[in-house]
Specification:
alpha/beta; six-stranded mixed beta sheet; four-stranded parallel beta sheet; 19% strand; globular
Length: 416
């Protein structure tokens, strides 16, 4: 099969294989988003899948297609969490031994859920800081032990399984103008995109990546998959350093557009989904919805589907999610302030420099090498974005000696 020839992918056979394993997840019209963008916005709720993400589709489809003798030897996977859960659940259903390699930074919630779904059929090994680190370890282990490696995205059977998301969408809504698809390694986009091009070729396919992990974006610039030196692993469901060799040409050929969403915008979208729609998603699961503002003029009056890819969010991460959202929205700022050594300097700052709605969310004196008191790290939360300019103007007016940390990424990462 030619690398971009997807005609041999049998999505209907995959759907039949999966029908007793996965949920046919709801395609839900969202009134709030529909009113906001002047169109019909439907959410494909893969966050309601049995393992709270679409990854079960590809994992089970590949494992269920293996010869029995090969499957019986055991299987291995590498995952930041969602693929691991789908893999583990598949091991439990098929009664096969599996080893899961996960990054050390994987949220505890995903590790615990993986153990729960796999029961006694899986073993978890935490290796490296990114998916790519643990993937290398998993592939070496599977080769050494002569076990089958089940990749999260770069295999035709994985792509075929993920494509069943598209099968369900068109079953529920035959007329779709736009589909927004989150992208990490590209398996979901390759699968859904291939099915739509077969069955609904006029539908516009929009890929959405996290700005801090632009693997497909960089691959398209280079004309081939490239290994990124560094990524932001915050949106762990899509945080990969390299797009797949198989998925890349498919995505390149089929996607009509690709958009990068800042992680902070995904966080702000996640919070709004929770507060206004009672929908719990993970940062990667919010990407497709976060991208809507970029396409607002194109989608007016259209039928638009946003794939909500996963809902495996750890409550322990909510403070960081809120922090990123506030910074993206311009409502949270950090300064190093060198207060003059005179009585009343701090009181004047609080009473006269801060605005009536400004709130000090963090105050910490830094220590100098000689143990004398140094500048203060001050975090200030605002009610409105424009209040920032008023705050800075007052600091200049009162002669406040300050350094804004957001203007210096290295300093910000070190101190905040």
């Amino acid at each position: 099969m030619a690398i971009t020839d997807t005609s041999q992918l049998d999505f209907n056979a995959a759907a039949e294989r999966l029908k007793t394993v996965v949920e046919h997840t709801p395609l839900m019209l969202n009134p709030r988003l529909s009113a906001k963008f002047g169109c019909k916005i439907y959410l494909k709720r893969e966050d309601l899948q049995v393992v709270r993400s679409y990854k079960i589709r590809g994992a089970y489809n590949m494992m269920g297609s293996l010869p029995k003798e090969q499957l019986a030897k055991g299987v291995v996977c590498a995952s930041a969490g969602n693929h691991a859960q789908g893999f583990a659940y598949s091991c439990q259903l098929l009664k096969v031994r599996g080893v899961v390699f996960m990054p050390v930074i994987t949220p505890k919630q995903k590790i615990n859920k993986t153990k729960l779904f796999g029961e006694d059929f899986i073993e978890i090994r935490l290796v490296g800081d990114t998916y790519d680190d643990c993937s290398a370890a998993a592939k070496a282990y599977s080769k050494e032990k002569e076990l089958t490696f089940i990749p999260p995205f770069d295999d035709y059977k994985i792509i075929e399984g993920q494509g069943t998301v598209g099968v369900e969408i068109l079953e529920d809504l035959p007329m779709v103008d736009y589909v927004l698809i989150p992208i990490g390694g590209g398996g979901l986009a390759a699968g859904v995109g291939s099915y739509f091009k077969q069955k609904s070729p006029n539908t516009k396919l929009i890929g959405v990546e996290a700005e801090g992990a632009p693997a497909l974006h960089k691959a398209l610039e280079a004309g081939h998959p490239v290994m990124l030196d560094k990524i932001d692993s915050f949106a762990d469901g899509v945080a990969v350093k390299r797009v797949g060799d198989i998925t890349f040409p498919i995505c390149k050929e089929l996607l009509d557009d690709l958009y990068l969403v800042p992680e902070g915008k995904a966080c702000a979208t996640l919070i709004k989904l929770y507060n206004e729609d009672a929908i719990v998603v993970e940062p990667a699961g919010a990407l497709s919805i976060a991208a809507l503002t970029h396409f607002k003029d194109k989608i007016k009056g259209k039928n638009v589907v946003c794939i909500v890819s996963g809902g495996n969010n750890d409550i322990d991460r909510m403070q960081e999610i809120k922090e990123r959202a506030l910074q993206y929205e311009g409502l949270k700022h950090y300064f190093l302030i060198r207060f003059p050594q005179r009585p009343g300097a701090l009181k004047q700052f609080l009473n006269e420099v801060l605005g009536p709605n400004d709130d000090v969310s963090r105050f910490e004196y830094m220590q100098k090498n000689n143990k004398e008191t140094g500048p203060a790290l001050v975090g200030i939360e605002l009610k409105a974005r424009d209040d920032y300019f008023k705050l800075v103007e007052r600091m200049k007016q009162f002669g406040i000696n300050y350094t804004e940390l957001s203007k210096d990424n290295n300093l910000f990462e070190y101190l905040v």
